[in-house]
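Tip: read the tokens left to right.
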């Protein structure tokens, strides 16, 4: 999933994407994007439920989360026109939603997706922004190649809209996940790459900074550009060397 700089992912509906409505209040925008992308990727892999949960691995790239900035708007306003820590403590902190910290846990995509999909095998969460998504993909390949899992779901998610002044350039939001399946586990030969691409790809630089989603989105777009993936989600058989 991806969007134009500073804009939201087009037509994104987390409930339609499979997230229970009651769970939304404990998820940031980035987490919602990541969980839906993970669910969509798995939906492109028929028969994956036959793989034992202990042989399913999940590898996620993330960025340090601090909850949604909108949740702090009231507290910031109550602290006065200039930063005043005393006023913030006395008048602002009581206005912060109690679930703000829970929403900001950086391993929430991993936690929610693994619970919803019943993944109990090897897993990892790299809270390193842009680097985290790339590391997640690499570790997924190693996990399958080394026989630690039969199926690896790997990707990343970020929602950086509004961070332009901090990061010094256009920012967007996005999420992407791929599924790697060991040889012989599901029909087909070689290491099977099953990629869910929910929208037509566009140039990566048109998205702006998308942090941990950058490498996974680039991978899916490279597959699409090579004619090995298309909008809507497909199965792609390829042997990685």
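Filled-in amino acids:
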């Amino acid at each position: 999933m991806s969007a134009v700089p500073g804009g939201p992912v087009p037509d994104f509906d987390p409930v339609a994407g499979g997230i229970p409505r009651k769970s939304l209040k404990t998820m940031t925008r980035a987490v919602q994007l990541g969980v839906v992308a993970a669910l969509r990727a798995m939906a492109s892999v028929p028969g994956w439920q036959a793989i034992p949960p202990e042989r399913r691995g999940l590898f996620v790239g993330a960025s340090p989360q601090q909850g949604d900035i909108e949740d702090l708007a009231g507290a910031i306003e109550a602290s006065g026109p200039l930063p005043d820590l005393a006023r913030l403590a006395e008048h602002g902190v009581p206005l912060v939603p109690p679930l703000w910290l829970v929403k900001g846990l950086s391993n929430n995509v991993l936690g929610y997706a693994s619970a919803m999909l019943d993944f109990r095998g090897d897993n990892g969460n790299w809270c390193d922004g842009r680097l985290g998504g790339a590391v997640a993909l690499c570790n997924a390949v190693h996990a399958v190649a080394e026989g630690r899992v039969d199926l690896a779901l790997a990707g990343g998610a970020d929602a950086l809209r509004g961070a332009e002044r901090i990061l010094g350039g256009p920012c967007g939001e996005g999420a992407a996940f791929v599924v790697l399946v060991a040889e012989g586990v599901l029909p087909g030969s070689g290491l099977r790459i099953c990629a869910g691409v929910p929208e037509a790809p566009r140039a990566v630089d048109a998205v702006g900074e998308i942090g941990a989603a950058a490498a996974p989105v680039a991978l899916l777009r490279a597959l699409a550009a090579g004619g090995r993936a298309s909008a809507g989600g497909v199965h792609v058989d390829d042997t990685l060397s």
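The helical segments are 29-43, 73-78, 85-92, 100-103, 108-117, 130-145, 164-167, 214-225. The first strand starts at residue 56 and ends at 62.
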